[in-house]
């Protein structure tokens, strides 16, 4: 079982538009609503693969009730924590060439009692969890040290934790030695305070995060591939080029695949790349199932292309 904690979940509404014109009345060619938030997406990907997952989420208002119902319809066990303000609604506009325009709401204020209730829900439901995935931005209320407290309590309870966040929350948690951190290229650059021009720069930045406490770093470099640095070695994974439909939730699908495959070594990295590659070919924030995966597209190696420029055609 993989337990996820998403302190700022959402309802994600996606509209596919023939064209995005400011100031016009636009008619959608297709639309959908999905339960959203990074940890929620990890749970959705685990459930889509046939695994068991529990989602710890704050729920407020009719939006929160709909979020809980959608999660249950996806086969996800919901550990909801009531909050006073409504769960946020995010909107994504998708153009035919794959360009995304996103409007993300701030989300509800989380009071101290609700923040503590989320920590208690994680403790109460994590006894049989192989991994706890703590994902996404912090809502209004908890300070950046809150994720550090989640990591600390997880380890005191004997569990393993993967942390997918950024900024001050990531920095504060590193000293508690999260088992895996999962930054993208921009978040990795922010964490070390310098630009990353090449894959080699990304490797050095990931090594720095390990030196600051992270036991493993799974770094998504977008179309350039993914890096894994853990106690078994340094690995680089890529996939053959595919036609991307939406990259919303692709990183979350990657993390789900990585954890479900054991969360260590090149086989887990290959699963991460395969799941992320499958996710970008699906609409909105749809999560891939086994039928969507094509492991033949994926290559992993210890021969790191350190001189390859990031953001350039591969």
From TrEMBL:
<dbReference type="Pfam" id="PF00294">
    <property type="entry name" value="PfkB"/>
</dbReference>
<keyword id="KW-0067">ATP-binding</keyword>
<dbReference type="GO" id="GO:0044281">
    <property type="term" value="P:small molecule metabolic process"/>
</dbReference>
<dbReference type="InterPro" id="IPR022463">
    <property type="entry name" value="1-PFruKinase"/>
</dbReference>
<dbReference type="InterPro" id="IPR029056">
    <property type="entry name" value="Ribokinase-like"/>
</dbReference>
<comment type="similarity">
    <text>Belongs to the carbohydrate kinase PfkB family.</text>
</comment>
<feature type="domain" description="Carbohydrate kinase PfkB">
    <location>
        <begin position="24"/>
        <end position="286"/>
    </location>
</feature>
<dbReference type="InterPro" id="IPR017583">
    <property type="entry name" value="Tagatose/fructose_Pkinase"/>
</dbReference>
<dbReference type="InterPro" id="IPR011611">
    <property type="entry name" value="PfkB_dom"/>
</dbReference>
<dbReference type="GO" id="GO:0008662">
    <property type="term" value="F:1-phosphofructokinase activity"/>
</dbReference>
<keyword id="KW-0547">Nucleotide-binding</keyword>
<dbReference type="GO" id="GO:0005829">
    <property type="term" value="C:cytosol"/>
</dbReference>
<keyword id="KW-0808">Transferase</keyword>
<keyword id="KW-0418">Kinase</keyword>
<dbReference type="GO" id="GO:0005524">
    <property type="term" value="F:ATP binding"/>
</dbReference>
<dbReference type="GO" id="GO:0016052">
    <property type="term" value="P:carbohydrate catabolic process"/>
</dbReference>
<protein>
    <submittedName>
        <fullName>1-phosphofructokinase</fullName>
        <ecNumber>2.7.1.56</ecNumber>
    </submittedName>
</protein>
């Amino acid at each position: 079982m993989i337990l996820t904690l998403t302190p700022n979940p959402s309802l994600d509404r996606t509209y596919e538009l023939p064209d995005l014109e400011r100031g016009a009345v636009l008619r959608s060619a297709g639309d959908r609503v999905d339960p959203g938030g990074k940890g929620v997406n990890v749970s959705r990907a685990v459930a889509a693969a046939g695994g068991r997952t529990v989602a710890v989420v704050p729920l407020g208002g009719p939006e929160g009730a709909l979020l809980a119902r959608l999660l249950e319809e996806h086969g996800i066990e919901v550990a909801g924590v009531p909050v006073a303000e409504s769960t946020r609604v995010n909107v994504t506009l998708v153009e035919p060439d794959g360009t995304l325009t996103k409007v993300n709401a701030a989300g509800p204020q989380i009071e101290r009692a609700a923040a503590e209730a989320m920590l208690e829900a994680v403790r109460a439901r994590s006894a049989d969890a192989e991994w706890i995935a703590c994902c996404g931005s912090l809502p209004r209320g908890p300070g950046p040290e809150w994720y550090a407290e989640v990591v600390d309590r997880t380890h005191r309870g004997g569990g393993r934790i993967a942390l997918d966040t950024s900024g001050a929350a990531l920095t504060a948690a590193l000293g508690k030695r999260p088992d895996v951190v999962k930054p993208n290229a921009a978040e990795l650059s922010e964490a070390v305070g310098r630009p990353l021009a090449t894959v080699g720069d990304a490797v050095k930045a990931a090594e720095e995060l390990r030196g600051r406490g992270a036991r493993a770093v799974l770094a998504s470099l977008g179309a350039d591939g993914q890096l894994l640095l853990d106690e078994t070695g340094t690995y680089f994974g890529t996939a053959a080029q595919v036609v991307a439909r939406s990259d919303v939730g692709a990183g979350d699908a990657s993390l789900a695949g990585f954890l479900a495959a054991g969360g260590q070594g090149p086989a887990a990295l290959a699963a991460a790349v395969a799941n992320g590659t499958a996710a970008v070919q699906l609409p909105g924030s749809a999560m891939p199932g086994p039928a969507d995966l094509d492991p033949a597209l994926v290559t992993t190696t210890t021969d790191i292309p350190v001189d390859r420029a990031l953001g350039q055609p591969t």
